[in-house]
Amino acid sequence: MTQSHTMRVIEISKPGGPEVLVPAERAVPVPGAGEIVIRVAYAGVNRPDALQRAGSYAPPPGASDLPGLEASGVVVALGAGVTRWRIGDEVCALLPGGGYAEYVATPAAHALPVPAGLGLRAAACLPETFFTVWTNVFDRGRLQAGERFLIHGGTSGIGTTAIQLAAARGARVFATAGSDDKCQACLDLGAERAINYRNEDFVAAMRAEGGADLILDMVGGDYLPRNVKALADDGRLVQIAFLSGPSVELNFAQVMVRRLTITGSTLRPRSVAAKAAIARALEAEVWPLLATGRVAPVIDSEFPLDEAAAAHARLETSAHIGKIVLKVSG
Q: Which residue range or ranges hold the Enoyl reductase (ER) domain (predicted)?
């Protein structure tokens, strides 16, 4: 490695609001066995970063305490046993943490090549959302062509990804959003119908269509019983976050009588092997769609690394459409 032994990072000085994100300096990481070190060009900003900053989403054992679960950049160091990557390769990668920094270490099996036609800025928007959508919508949710799929938060990073992937694979896509402009963005991305949840009941809308075969939800709270009502018989609900809280009273009689499935997952605590399997599936099934332009990340805004606090403030307004990225170098 020819770079400096120290690097700029963004630390969480204490649990709190965006203002607790502060620039600092740390040692450049050294790759362990099976790892690579990436000189970060761009890092994605995601809801789990904000939860970690607030003190409610601790890193798993052994992970960096710095926020940042995805990044793009250039490989600058290889750990023992790494054979796929070479120094100088451009990659994007799912990270255990540490993306808000000039350099980051991650398992080599969690890195993917930058898709043809995409630059490093766009590539930084891929790992966290595409890994999440693939494993929850297509693995756990078993979405099939022709099925009715409802995605809440259609203009979030997860939402814009889920709409495009589901439409590309032949599903009928429905989305909720909080404004007419956001609803139009969902339609532009491939949704058949967008439901403004501020003035329309998504349960009634989906029941009029015969019910949703699959719902992807990150709201939770009082959406849980409403989601159950919105499902078709034999439908599936996949829960990936709880922006409105994880606790609610729910009548499970409907789950039994209508043979519903309620499941969910979180990505960060999963094993290295499980995430590597998702990476392989993405490269085979999704990377060709990115290379042809059939699917593309939606970028809302870009901030310099030192303005991570402003990026988090933007995220928490929920006014964004698509992904927010930090420019780190290059």
A: 16-326
Place of tokens 């307004």: 317
Length of the chain: 330
What is the CB neighbour count within 10 angstroms for residue 183?
22
CA 56 to chain centre: 18
Torsion angle (degrees, nearest 10) of CA 197, 177, 250, 242 = -140
Return the DSSP state at 108: G
| CATH numbers and ranges of domains, the chain | 6-126+270-327 (3.90.180.10), 130-264 (3.40.50.720)
Find residue 26's DSSP bridge partners: 7
* Pairwise CA distance, residues 305 & 302, whole Å: 9
Helix axes 157-168, 180-189, angle to 10 degrees: 40
Q: What is the pTM of this model?
A: 0.94
pLDDT value of position 96: 96
Quick one: pLDDT at residue 248?
87
- Transcribe 124-183 into DSSP letters: TTSHHHHHHHIIIIIIIS---TT-EEEESSTTSHHHHHHHHHHHHTT-EEEEEESSHHHH
pLDDT at res. 245: 85
Q: What burial class does residue 27 get, using C-beta atoms within 10 Å of its C-beta: 0-12 exposed, 13-18 middle, 19+ buried?
A: exposed
- Around Cβ 143, how many Cβ atoms within 10 Å? 25
Which token pair is 271? 């094993």
**Residue 145 CB: number of other CB atoms within 10 A?**
9
* pLDDT for position 1: 44
**Low-confidence residues in the chain, pLDDT < 70:** 1-3, 330
Beta bridge partners of 78: 36
